[in-house]
């Protein structure tokens, strides 16, 4: 099945979309990668969902990516003795290390690492920012705060500390266990929540050892300050706008989305835009105009993928949500302004032979109006370089490694095909032409451009570029 768009769709599985027939319908509607949220999945459920996705993959004959999204640290206040309290603006409220039940004046904060990190003037956001506190006095045992925005506060509501860097790992014990389980199931991507610093990614990389790509979710102000280092260490980036919009003023999020997207594109790392993209479709069969515009903006910006969360996981219209996103993306990519915007954001290639060849392949393909750019890749690096160029010409990636093809399902524009490595140059050209013909990209008499590395089968050695004619039987000729 060939997609009629370049941006990829990431769909979250959940109560509305766990059955194999629904997963197959989601794929048919346009989902390229499936997300399993480990906040709501135990290891048995993870295994079941992976098996079902792989069954669909076998049936449709196309590589499908799977992303396991780790929960990350869940910071919460303690409990209250007499039910919820109503905090008034200007009141004094204390968070402390005393495990006794809370009241209108104080509550237990069972996270000593937060109390140690707080300083006067730091903010605390409770219950997704509905209640806002400002620290007046801070010590390792308690933080005395002033209520800036009051409201109802009940047991175990979440705590965010946007001004403080907490000296704790982004990888909790649960995350470590979930990570090992996900790697055992051969998922393709691991998403790490609440990244604050590059060390958080290094920790996951050490455990993953290349068995899965590491995707860093940008949802903390601290991550924005160290964005370039985080992008360098991660294999992909997600703009997690939900928590970003809690910890930072909402009006800053659209600008940050553009900043993060462009930084990831410059680095040639896939970037995913997530959270509330078609939120109203949780309970309605059609989205709002504003949501359509939001998805379109991400596509115009050249994001690699757009993501559905509750819309596909727990909503009433999971398949419709994917189909709607697919229609929006196709329409945007046919818009007369789309190519001009994508072209304007193109970056110069890195000073390597492989990057220069990817840039040259794109330029030659566009100049000669070729039918397709075909890349041979073992590790996936050549595929990502080709994707970074954002060519107007269709991109086909041929890889002998199924795991590579699955991982590249997240990257912009890549139509991934699992194929044996070429044995020589003639075989390389023939195979590329045959596949571009059989997959519906090239017709007899059209030309394609092929990039590969010699000697064949050597990862990271892209050093050759060939133009070939597709023959009447789909075979190649120079």
Label this structure with key terms.
M1 Pyruvate Kinase, Domain 3; 6-stranded mixed β-sheet; 3 domains; elongated; Pyruvate Kinase, Chain: A, domain 1; 478 residues; 8-stranded parallel β-barrel
CATH class of the largest domain: Alpha Beta
What proportion of the residues form beta strands (DSSP E)?
A: 15-25%
The CATH architecture of the largest domain would be Alpha-Beta Barrel
Question: Whole-number radius of gyration?
Answer: 24 Å
The largest sheet, given as strand count, sense and whether it forms a barrel, is:
8 strands, parallel, barrel
Treating each run of at least 4 consecutive H or I residues as one helix, how many helices? 17
Helical/strand content category: alpha/beta
The end-to-end span amounts to 28 Å
| Outline | elongated
How many domains make up the coordinates?
3
Low-pLDDT residue intervals, each spanning 5 or more residues: none
Mean pLDDT: 94
Structure notes:
- The chain has 478 residues and is an alpha/beta fold.
- It has three domains: 8-72 and 170-337, Phosphoenolpyruvate-binding domains (TIM Barrel); 85-160, Beta Barrel (M1 Pyruvate Kinase, Domain 3), CATH 2.40.33; 353-477, Pyruvate kinase, C-terminal domain (Pyruvate Kinase, Chain: A, domain 1, 3-Layer(aba) Sandwich).
- It contains 17 helices and 22 strands.
- The chain has an eight-stranded parallel β-barrel, surrounded by eight helices. Strands 6-5-9-8-7-11 form a six-stranded mixed beta sheet, with no helix packed on it. The protein has a six-stranded mixed beta sheet with strand order 19-18-17-20-21-22.
- Strand 1, helix 1 (20-29) and strand 2 (33-37) form a beta-alpha-beta unit.
């Amino acid at each position: 099945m060939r997609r009629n768009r370049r941006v990829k769709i990431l769909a979250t599985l959940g109560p509305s979309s766990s059955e194999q027939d629904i997963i197959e319908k989601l794929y048919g509607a346009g989902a390229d990668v499936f997300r399993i949220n480990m906040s709501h999945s135990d290891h048995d459920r993870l295994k079941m969902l992976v098996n079902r996705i792989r069954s669909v993959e076998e049936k449709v004959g196309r590589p499908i990516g799977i992303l396991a999204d780790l929960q990350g640290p869940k910071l919460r206040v303690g409990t209250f003795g007499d039910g919820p309290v109503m905090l008034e603006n200007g009141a004094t409220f204390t968070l402390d290390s005393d495990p006794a039940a809370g009241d209108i004046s104080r509550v237990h904060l069972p996270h000593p690492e937060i109390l140690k990190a707080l300083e006067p003037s730091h903010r605390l956001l409770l219950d997704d920012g509905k209640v806002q506190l400002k620290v007046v006095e801070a010590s390792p045992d308690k933080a005395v705060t002033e209520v800036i925005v009051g409201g109802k506060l009940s047991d175990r509501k979440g705590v965010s500390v946007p001004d403080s860097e907490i000296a704790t790992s982004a990888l909790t014990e649960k995350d470590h266990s979930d990570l090992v389980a996900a790697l055992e199931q051969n998922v393709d991507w691991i998403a790490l929540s609440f990244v604050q610093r590059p060390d958080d990614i290094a920790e996951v990389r050490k455990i993953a050892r290349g068995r899965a790509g590491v995707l860093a979710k940008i949802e903390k102000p601290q991550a924005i300050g160290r964005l370039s280092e985080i992008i360098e260490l991660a294999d992909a980036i997600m703009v997690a706008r939900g928590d970003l919009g809690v910890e930072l003023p909402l009006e800053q999020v659209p600008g940050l989305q553009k900043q993060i997207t462009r930084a990831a594109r410059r680095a040639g790392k896939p970037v995913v835009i997530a959270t509330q993209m078609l939120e109203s479709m949780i309970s309605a069969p059609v989205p709002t105009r504003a949501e359509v515009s939001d998805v379109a903006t991400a596509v115009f910006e050249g994001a690699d993928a757009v993501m559905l969360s509750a819309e596909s996981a727990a909503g009433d219209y999971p398949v419709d949500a994917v189909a709607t996103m697919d229609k929006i993306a196709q329409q945007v990519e046919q818009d007369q302004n789309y190519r001009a915007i994508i072209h304007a954001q193109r970056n110069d290639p890195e000073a390597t032979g492989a990057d220069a060849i990817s840039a040259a392949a794109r330029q030659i393909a566009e100049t000669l109006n070729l039918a397709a750019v075909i890349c041979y890749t073992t590790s996936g690096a050549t595929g990502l370089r080709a994707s970074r160029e954002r060519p107007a010409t269709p991109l086909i990636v041929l890889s002998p490694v199924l795991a590579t093809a699955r991982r590249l399902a997240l990257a912009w524009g890549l139509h991934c095909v699992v194929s044996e490595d070429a044995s020589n140059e003639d075989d390389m050209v023939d195979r590329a032409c045959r596949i571009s013909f059989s997959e519906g990209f090239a017709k007899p008499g059209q030309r394609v451009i092929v990039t590969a590395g010699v000697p064949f089968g050597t990862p990271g050695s892209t050093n050759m570029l060939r133009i070939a004619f597709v023959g009447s039987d789909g075979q190649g000729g120079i």
